[in-house]
Known about the structure:
The protein is of the alpha/beta class. The protein is built from 17 helices and 18 strands.
Amino acid sequence: xxxxxxxxxxxxxxxxxxxxxxxxxxxxxxxxxxxxxxxxxxxxxxxxxxxxxxxxxxxxxxxxxxxxxxxxxxxxxxxxxxxxxxxxxxxxxxxxxxxxxxxxxxxxxxxxxxxxxxxxxxxxxxxxxxxxxxxxxxxxxxxxxxxxxxxxxxxxxxxxxxxxxxxxxxxxxxxxxxxxxxxxxxxxxxxxxxxxxxxxxxxxxxxxxxxxxxxxxxxxxxxxxxxxxxxxxxxxxxxxxxxxxxxxxxxxxxxxxxxxxxxxxxxxxxxxxxxxxxxxxxxxxxxxxxxxxxxxxxxxxxxxxxxxxxxxxxxxxxxxxxxxxxxxxxxxxxxxxxxxxxxxxxxxxxxxxxxxxxxxxxxxxxxxxxxxxxxxxxxxxxxxxxxxxxxxxxxxxxxxxxxxxxxxxxxxxxxxxxxxxxxxxxxxxxxxxxxxxxxxxxxxxxxxxx
Length: 450
């Protein structure tokens, strides 16, 4: 079957299937981690967690002086003893924020379709790795694997494996329960993967602490709400030039923190501010740049693609650093370690950091991407097969959360890295008549199922 016909067939098969409906997912009525606003009142804090992390930071600041926002975020989120992600990681209704896969199974199904669509478009390699960075509770991967399992004839001759990059011991336990039913084992003989198991659908799954530990090979890399939690540096333009925003102890309230400006230029100021910058306040995430470079190098060498889904901008926004606790905005300097800290992703920076090794697509708004992937057709099929009013209403409510421009539809974006040859066909001088049209990239162009 021709690649275009094969891709249309699988899209029609999955979008039109009744699927295995899970129990409806309940979630907070507000949008997940809104894309603007850096204020908000802090919630009441429990004494132990807040005090332990704050005491640690106060001792550090008294010993070394002010620290960068990046260092503050790294401590507050991933400190081995009291970091938010290592100890808490509150995803879901009972946590601090909600993500698209937790809202609707359709989201993960469409991402699964995207991977298979690109796999077909690039000639159906004999094996591919599904690699997710920061997999949360494992919900997205779980939904994708269910789609893979619905297409046994398509993937029967392909060796599929799952590779999760996760630093949080607590979240990796939740992922293992979601994906394998808890049937995992530690992997001491392998210095790269710290845990392994078999998915409920029979695929091997491995856990890593760093993307560099993931084996090379044709892979689809997913980063859903991953880059927004990486540490950022903040800079402010002043009459004396650019100054870095730092975190220090408030001298008037010795057990509280405050923002200050560096007295002079810092190494980060010299390296990360571009001469052509026109904004007065800039946020830069060097760690995101390093990871994108690694992804671009892997895709350039081994093929595959990377799909980034996050809230962000194309080099236009300024101050987006904010915190979330119990689904509400939270002061980023209050009770560190008890709240999620996040900042909008600068997609123009990610594009620049590929250094031309790969082609890029997007950012495109979430509602446009999902519409191109066939979410409307999928919703209609699920509604027709919903047997009760509660499920019917839940499906409509979830769809509204994902697609409404005032909720997630416009503030979340999709961005892709692909090999250059995926978008530009090499010139065939000898047999120009053998050229076949390049397949459109799913999600970034409307796909017709006729």
